[in-house]
Amino acid sequence: MEYAQLSDTLSISRIVQGLWRVTDWNYSDMQLLKFVEEVLSLGIDSFDQADIYGNYESEKKFGEALKLKPSLREEIKIISKCGIKLLSDKFPERKAKHYDYSYEHIVKSAETSLKNMRTDRLDLLLLHRPSPFFNAEEVARAFEFLKKGGKVLHFGVSNFKPSQFEVLQSYLSDSLVTNQVEISPFCLEHFENGNIDFFQKHKIKPMAWSPLGGGNIFNTKDEGIISCLEVLNRIGEELNCSVDQVVYAWLVKHPVGICPVIGTGKIERVKSAAKSLEIDLNLEQWFQIYEAGLGEELP
Amino acid sequence: MEYAQLSDTLSISRIVQGLWRVTDWNYSDMQLLKFVEEVLSLGIDSFDQADIYGNYESEKKFGEALKLKPSLREEIKIISKCGIKLLSDKFPERKAKHYDYSYEHIVKSAETSLKNMRTDRLDLLLLHRPSPFFNAEEVARAFEFLKKGGKVLHFGVSNFKPSQFEVLQSYLSDSLVTNQVEISPFCLEHFENGNIDFFQKHKIKPMAWSPLGGGNIFNTKDEGIISCLEVLNRIGEELNCSVDQVVYAWLVKHPVGICPVIGTGKIERVKSAAKSLEIDLNLEQWFQIYEAGLGEELP
Amino acid sequence: MEYAQLSDTLSISRIVQGLWRVTDWNYSDMQLLKFVEEVLSLGIDSFDQADIYGNYESEKKFGEALKLKPSLREEIKIISKCGIKLLSDKFPERKAKHYDYSYEHIVKSAETSLKNMRTDRLDLLLLHRPSPFFNAEEVARAFEFLKKGGKVLHFGVSNFKPSQFEVLQSYLSDSLVTNQVEISPFCLEHFENGNIDFFQKHKIKPMAWSPLGGGNIFNTKDEGIISCLEVLNRIGEELNCSVDQVVYAWLVKHPVGICPVIGTGKIERVKSAAKSLEIDLNLEQWFQIYEAGLGEELP
């Protein structure tokens, strides 16, 4: 496994294990512990969560598994997110989904994540989405409180554009260490909106969510996706590997240092993802995939 | 009334009285003076003009009213704009509407504004619109001349995007103190184009023109506007206030410190606007309005 | 002829002679030499090439002409480009058009340009297009190698957006001296995407390719182009000059210092272009052309 140094004090595995759907996997706590240990044995030491995943249950599920072997905490990096307030039976008083980046909510959300996952610290806390109602000064105060208390070691964002990243960064003394955005051959928007340039300029290594396009690419009728899959298939044959692996290799090869977040709960597919780091895509193949995703020829 | 500190030496009232349509109000000079005094008694001390308003007549009309009580000048802030050259019977030699940010035009326009409004200074002069033909160095020279002569105390822009703001700022020693842009639930573009982020990063408080969407929102057939109005109506009922007041409260609540420019000449509606500052919209209501204006769900 | 100072050590003529289609002109080497000398006698001393022009043959053709009078090299500036890898019978091993900004390719491409054009140095080397797969650090190393060896004296880019320019610049010690982009009344995108602002802020003088909209504007059925041509024709009549000249004058009048790259191989048209610098378009005419190109009224 390769590792990405996000800051002087934080490295994560190039492949990150996502836990978005952990409550859908129907694992017992012991089965989940086993899965986590197997993932870790592949060198994948970084686990991605959010307060809201699984209708606010994913962190708890993960915490129950970790509780069975507390020493595991020292071997892994835990990433979580905050800021979205979902409509949920857990919060019957809510009237509308919204974002909340108040001091109170950020602190409370992070503290709940700690309690849920039975840990005293998050290695990385991300703001889940940019908000039209955002007070960077207030966010900075919340970050400072969480950092000073040792509750959160590093901070980042998710789905931010450069101008949104810059406003928050300008209020912080520490550097935001990453931006977790959707990147895949099926989602190239961050190549267009300046984010990839921004990452390279500021030496920020992004995490990529939905690296396989959300998983529903295989039963689509979208012609663009179908013809993109044809290219991925062909290149998979050239390289003697699966389409998943081609996509991971495509992401990992990019010079900015993309770290894909994989969503599977099947250990065989995790192993396959880990192996994709060894695949040597050439530059022409990289561009063939980019062009297939773009749906038009390069100028 | 609350006040917004735009710079160390300039504060304006959070609600700004626009004079765009002053010539349509059919006020005698004395009636207009009376209106201005009543507005001022509400704490609204800032008046927004432009050289071109009312086919170049609005500043003169305002000047005639001020002439009746010259001491009023010391109690108010006068904002005007320059840079657009309209086709007008006043300028029969013009062949096409265009923008002119030459040294000569900026200086002449500001000096004409002073003469029209019978004052020796503008508190704030804004460039009315960004121009594809823009020489920042020349604009900077005009600003310097006007500043040194005490004719204009502060400078800003209107309808500029971040890159346009930055180029001008880079040629100036003083900071541009505001950007007057269209913001309303019916016009969210500055949440999308990076301006709101830019304002927060640089601690620039924007002014908002057409805060009610231009006023013709009430007799529209546009479904997006109609369903947005439904949400505003419902929240108005929840808060026991008018739709106008909901919108002003929505603008004023935003952390960047938006100052709405109201266009009405009816003192009752001005009073209603002033009272909106006391309305305490909650975060969910703020987002419900944002989402209604957006016309789609938040991600 | 006017000259544009792109850096302390590089000036180019405001009109640049493009050699994109030199292999289509059916000139003998001696005829091409004659053409170059006539162009030079007009004060146009800058010649624009790219590795790929004419299916990799344009540089060679130009080199054959220069070979007939080696002393000419000291009187001209040679601009070339690299980074695109075309599908071509010259490179049968290629499977897909792509971009290559590896150290090896940049160095090899520049060295091939030198050999083709029988010179020991390029005055200016441009990266031909921004690439989604771009390693600025690697590009910087290639530039440093070429600069130290005296093989390339100055560097720039082509078709880059501000964020792309910034990432590369942040890895370089020397300033990029220009960005060659498409600008014409038929292509106003760089007025919209922040590039024109960026050029002015950083005092970068852009080169404009396809200043006449690619040359096929005269036999189009596109209504927007036709009505834009009507405006250009009318202004040409007002100024007693050709449409070409109106367009060149429109470009050259802009405050950022645009240098049009002309594509013609006919000396009469080159003379006509050179003369366009003397045409004094007024501001209303400039805006009439801009608005005609925009296809809608200014706000």
Detailed description of the structure:
3 copies of one chain form a homotrimer. The first copy, chain A, is α/β, with parallel strands linked by helices and about 300 residues long. The first copy, chain A, has a domain of about 180 residues: NADP-dependent oxidoreductase domain (TIM Barrel, Alpha-Beta Barrel), CATH 3.20.20. Chain A contains 12 helices and 12 strands. The first copy, chain A, has an 8-stranded parallel beta barrel. The longest helix of chain A is centred in the C-terminal third of the chain and has 17 residues. Chain A starts with a strand and ends in a 5-residue tail after the last helix. The model of chain A has no long low-confidence stretch (mean pLDDT about 95). Chains in contact: A-B, A-C, B-C.
What are the SSEs and their pairings?
The structure is a homotrimer of 299-residue chains.
Chain A (H helix, E strand, L loop, with lengths): L2 E5 L2 E4 L2 E3 L10 H13 L4 E3 L4 H4 L1 H10 L9 E6 L1 E2 L12 E2 L3 H14 L7 E4 L8 H13 L6 E4 L3 H8 L9 E4 L6 H4 L2 H7 L5 E3 L13 H17 L3 H11 L5 E4 L4 H9 L7 H12 L5
Parallel strand pairs in A: 3-4, 3-12, 4-5, 5-8, 8-9, 9-10, 10-11, 11-12
Antiparallel strand pairs in A: 1-2, 6-7
Helix pairs in contact in A: 1-3, 4-5, 9-10, 9-12
InterPro entries (chains A, B, C): AKR_Detox_Biosynth, NAD(P)_OxRdtase_dom_sf, NADP_OxRdtase_dom
GO molecular function, one term (chains A, B, C): oxidoreductase activity
Enzyme class (chains A, B, C): oxidoreductase
